[in-house]
Give the backbone structure.
Amino acid sequence: MADSQSFKNLKDQYFLLDRNFNKLFAACNAAQQDQLRRDYVNSRDNFWEARNRVFAENDPLVKTLNKELKDSTDLINGMLSNLKNIAKILNLITGAVRLGSSLITMGSGIA
Amino acid sequence: MSKLADSKVRLSRVITLLLVLLLVVPGLSGCNNKAEGLKLAETGVATAETMASYYDSLARDTLDIWEWEAFLSAIRGTSFDDREQQRLQDQIDALNKRSRLANRLRSTYSALKELSSYNASGEVKSAAENLSNTILGLPPLKASGVDPSTIFGKLAGDLAAWKQSKDLRKGSVLILQTLERLTVLFDRETEAYKSIPEERANKIENVVDYVIRNKMVLSLPLLQKVVDAVGLKLVGADKPVDKEETILGLVAIARVRAHRVGLLSAGAAVGIHQALEQLVENHREFNASKGLSLDSALAGIEKAQSYLDEINKLRSEKGK
């Protein structure tokens, strides 16, 4: 079956944030909560937009972005068991969502 | 008048019976062709029906996602603007159009089935034209990165040209072309299809977590089956749950139920894909006058249908 690594990585990131939103939110101060809200919405936008895009999976930049995206999702996943350093986790999330947005720009849209 | 109609019906039944008898006698020109055509058409009808049900199920999932995301956005304070909501409406439209395409395919197979029983060229014409019109109007899924127009190409025109045809094999060749492209479309979009019930399960999990934590539901009955299994009775089932570890456990049960629908739906996608691939193979066998091996296609479609039946059962479950 067809397999788009880009779609999967964007999905994994959005689903991770969706499933853990409440847990992360509870650990944040007011400013951090706003940051989390923005990241969640951007990640959701990226995933929904990915459904409209075709990715050149063999493109070197797409490959690099996918690797970084997957690594960052794995890293965030591993840090969820301990939210003491929430600022660090949030910065990691913001960076990961930006990677997702960069990947989206590499996809071509459908008319 | 009614006697005349009755005798016509009787005559028609006798002719049909004779045709059926002729079909089972091997070696007579065209007989095997029609018998095999009938079996092929019946398998095609079953496959197309299950596909239509699957797309309907995905469209319902998308509507659930839309409503539950609106709820979650409100309680989380996140934005969910018109543009984003329009995306979900586009997705529902695209899924509904795929369902319609599957229904048109079913009608075409039904016409082929009739053609295998008697020469119903009028029905073939109408069904083929409907199928071609649906193919022409098929939008991108907005969930797959696939543009159907590049896959179906000029097939719609060929189907529309299949008029007044009494040629089973010609019909089969055209349906084969539709099926081959439909299989490509389904294959390329499968990942997007599977993500829809998964996303829905996440929304359920989040909403259930919220309503349990805020004591808006009586959640202890989620444990009912466990205590029933050993003949015990729940205490305090008529009160909201307070204990954090109990809440975590109850949310976990709700999560399993929600994600099970996702797994069943993914299983249905695999079954339909298997059936489509096999049906393509069966058309090739039919066109080459080889014996048909329909078991695999039927197995795929039975598997898919059983998953969809289970999903419908889970959707309609109340308080279990």
